[in-house]
Amino acid sequence: MDIYKLHYPGKVSIESEEHFSLALGFFDGLHKGHQTVINEAKRKAEELGIRSAVMTFDPHPSHLFGDGENKVGYITQYAEKARLLRSMGIDALFIVAFDWALASLSPNQFIDVFLKGLHVKHVTAGFDYTFGSKGAGTMEQMAELSGGAFGTTVIKKVTDNEEKISSTRIRKLLAEGNVEETALLLDRPYRTVGIVVDGEKRGRLLGFPTANVMPEKNTVLPANGVYAVHFTVEGKTYQGVCNVGVKPTFHDPSDRQAVVEVHVLNFDGDLYGKEAFVDWIGHIRDEQKFGSIDLLIKQIAKDKNSAVKILEAHR
Fold first, then answer.
1. What is the pLDDT of residues 14-73, one digit of tens each?
2. SS3 letters across the chain
3. Percent of the chain surpassing pLDDT 70
4. Which domains does the chain have, with CATH numbers?
5. Partner of 90 at 20 to 30 A CA spacing, among 57, 78, 135, 304?
């Protein structure tokens, strides 16, 4: 898959003269709704005998328009998004810098620069996708605004239990620690990508050594608690029990940011500095403060057993 990074008004074209069937959207999470849009763009590419492509934006619009509290975290970071799109068989990915210059483009200008200019022959997007300054352009208008330069397909609302599948809904589920329903909407377990870093080594002293995973910046994490996870490093996947939180038994929660720590089952080796993938399979319990170290150790042993049962049932 070819990846093109574009920035208006500077780099807004590519050397290739090939035509594209384009899926258009931010696609954070690449959930089932997004997959429907992208697979239709791919199907249309095959029908027309052209290349399939996805156009997304960086950063999320909330990082430009919102204040600190309104900036949303990412369900799927760009490297992971690219990996998933590659696995879907997409030929090209356009990542467009989202800044004030881009946000100021009229709907007509956006079409001229980023659709006609990139030789797009078909555009597929969700029913609620908008484009151009202040979201003035809608998919219903795009066919007319294109002047016949390309075709359009509008995907209707994709639902689960009669509720729209959306990135907002997934963020809410993660905030509740509901990784099981999140996986249903994503059609895969929720994944956190990070680097194993040096931690407090407290788990080792308790008899349960952990890998401290530093997620990529602005990554959405599940609610503080204990989870059964799959832990993948260097192409090998292991079972694990993960605590995400502030470790209130040892720290003042108000002074701490959440930390992701995974006790990797049946593993003995050096993980420091390596990229790790944490797939969240099942919620075991909320994070809690224990009155003694012995009580904490007993609970961790129970959590480990619970994780094994959940992971064995997940096979």
1. 888 899 999 999 999 999 999 999 999 999 999 999 999 999 999 888 887 766 667 889
2. CEEEEEECCCECCCCCCCCEEEEECCCCCCCHHHHHHHHHHHHHHHHHCCEEEEEEEECCCHHHHCCHHHCCCECCCHHHHHHHHHHCCCCEEEEEECCHHHHCCCHHHHHHHHHHCCCEEEEEEECCCEECHHHCEEHHHHHHHCCCCCEEEEECCCEECCEECCHHHHHHHHHCCCHHHHHHHHCCCEEEEEEEECCCCHHHHHCCCCEEEEECCCECCCCCEEEEEEEEECCEEEEEEEEEECCCCCCCHHHCCCEEEEEECCCCCCCCCCEEEEEEEEEEEECCCCCCHHHHHHHHHHHHHHHHHHHHHHC
3. 92
4. 2-164 (3.40.50.620), 188-314 (2.40.30.30)
5. 135
Work out the number of other CB atoms within 10 angstroms of the CB of residue 128. Answer: 14
Query: Is residue 154 within 8 Å of residue 126, measured between CB atoms?
Result: yes
Q: 127-181 pLDDT, tens per residue?
A: 999 999 988 999 999 989 999 999 999 999 999 999 999 999 999 999 999 999 9
- In the chain, what percentage of residues exceed pLDDT 90? 72
Placement of tokens 């009229």 in the chain: 106
Q: Rounded to an integer, what distance in angstroms lies between the CA atom of residue 295 and that of residue 70?
A: 39
Tokens representing 286?
């909320």
